[in-house]
Amino acid sequence: HPWETVLYGCTWPYGKPGFQTELLVPSDRFDSISGGVDHGISAAIVNNVDYGNAFVGHYNAGDIQYANHASIDNNNLIYWKETKNFANGCSAHITGGYYAKGNMALPDQGTFIIEDTTFGDDVILEANHHCNVGTTGVLCMPQYVLHNVKWKNKNSGKWIWFQGMNFQEHNANQNHGGIFTLSPTAIADITHGQANKDEMIFPSGYVSLVSSKFTYLLSLPNNVCILSAIEYGTRYDGGILCKVPLRALKIYTRDITSGSAPSLHIDVWANSLGVHGQIGDADASQDIFFHQIGRDGTSRKQGFSFPVIPGQTYSYYVSLNTGDKVIPNSWVIEFSDPVMGNRWGAEQIQLAVEGRDCGIDGLVSSQHDRRFLWSGDEYIDDSAWGNHGACVSNSSPPPDMPTIDCSSNQGLIGPTECPDLCPVECDNTNSFCHCGTATCQCKPGFSGIDCSVDLCAAARCSEHGKCAARYLGSSSILPVTNSDSACICDVGWSGPLCDSNPCAVQGRDCLGHGTCHAASERDTVCICDEGYSGENCEATCDGYCQGNGGVYPYSCATNIEGVVAYQCGPTGGCAYQTDPAATGPGGFCTYKSVKVNNDCECSTDSDCM
Q1: Domain co-membership, 197 together with 297
Q2: Do 235 and 258 fall within a single domain?
Q3: pLDDT grade, residue 473 (50/70/90)?
Q4: Half-sphere exposure of residue 338, counting CA atoms within 13 Å on the CB side?
Q5: If pLDDT is split at 50, 70 and 90, which confidence band does 342 have?
Q6: Which end of the chain has the lower number of beta carbons within 10 A, N or C?
Q7: Where are the beta strands (DSSP E) in 233-373?
Q8: Is residue 449 part of a domain?
Q9: Structural domain count, the chain
């Protein structure tokens, strides 16, 4: 459809490797999975551009990487309900991307890494999209890891939000989970003063965010976590900001119903003495309530989950609010994710579980066993209960997952190819073996019978431009000898080679309330931040309009089809003008204006895309 980009299919750890058009097929049973390991095939969607769509993405999908993806002005910049980690043990779900003007509907379950990606204006990150609507989702506690992410969203409204509505007939609904956290490398950069504070998603000194529901974090010593609403309003949905990394601890249960389920109790000590130092009153405690996907009997996905702090400072004690407090041996416990160790080094939590054995000193590694734990709608294989996961109490606890070295490519996935199918070896520089045709096909930017014609050889783009032929596919024969159409310029740059920056020449900064863009090789225009207007973004309605506490959007709308001017009143009220010539009610302030004609005039082909 012209209004959506949807990928149907997924690659969960099935018995038969490969892409499937359904989450599971009846003939694909767990007894065909060798050793309970991941049988997915990691693949990438590369250099895709989505603009003005409704949905971009899919429902349940694993092993799919979006590489160099640009998604702008879509209702959902990404739409994803459930995912898993990559079979290769390394890859990020999103890498090298650019997202602006829309909602990032992020999925549940697997650790979701976003790396080398820029977020522009009007982006909102949504945790656990669709979790516990129908039978979607699992325990609603994914880890969203931000690695080398540039946050350039200047919108003063909401940046991140957590689920809060219950779509079930019962109250066993804890879909407010989800952890947003910086990668260990990004945290180290902050510690050593190497991070650009103007491009950070969190306030200075903070590295993680969770829902306000996990109140035990606020009781920890030294104000290691704070309630964001006190200082940062609605930006973080009133969540809890922490100065330490957070990871997910999940306990998968079975055969419990929503009406009779006990709650889970957690105690935390912050004395750096490990589980042997769990003496006296805990520094923080909380009851975690039971979570169940769907109505009773409609889904096997149920259990408990909450954020924890890895490392040596904090130790956790977990028990049930029942008479004996014992966590049944059959339940499966999971901490963090092996991809964290594969990418940045193994992490540990100090954990004591009532009735279970978590090993020497209660140290549980992010690399602990996970065999048979997850396979889409089939959930957990029967052989996993009591035998796999962390803190397994039997005579032969399972070994950790195999260590995977991610240093060579950091999880980047190249074009899907099948070199064994082609009768002749393809030149990896400019071609690849196409899995469907079993022939050598040209990579984007190359052409000719043997793919020897480099369409970008004469482009000569500066470091601020990209050769257009690299994005137009192998079927494109772009006349790059015409320098006016060879390069696509980065924002702010212009000219045939993308080497002209009139904003820098003019020193135009839009008064710090907008971004200067090149309209041509000589002319510039300010694109104002929300809440500001005027030729140089000098006008604002803050403090004049009283709605929403006197800050944008003043309890008014921000996106109505056909409206060209959005206005607010000094004592409340909103007005929306569809006629560019209309002035609106007297005394009303214009807080947002929209161009009627968005066509740009270009002195060369390189200035517009």
Answers
A1: no
A2: no
A3: low
A4: 24
A5: very high
A6: N
A7: 240-242, 247-252, 264-269, 284-288, 291-292, 302-308, 315-320, 332-335, 348-353, 363-365
A8: yes
A9: 4
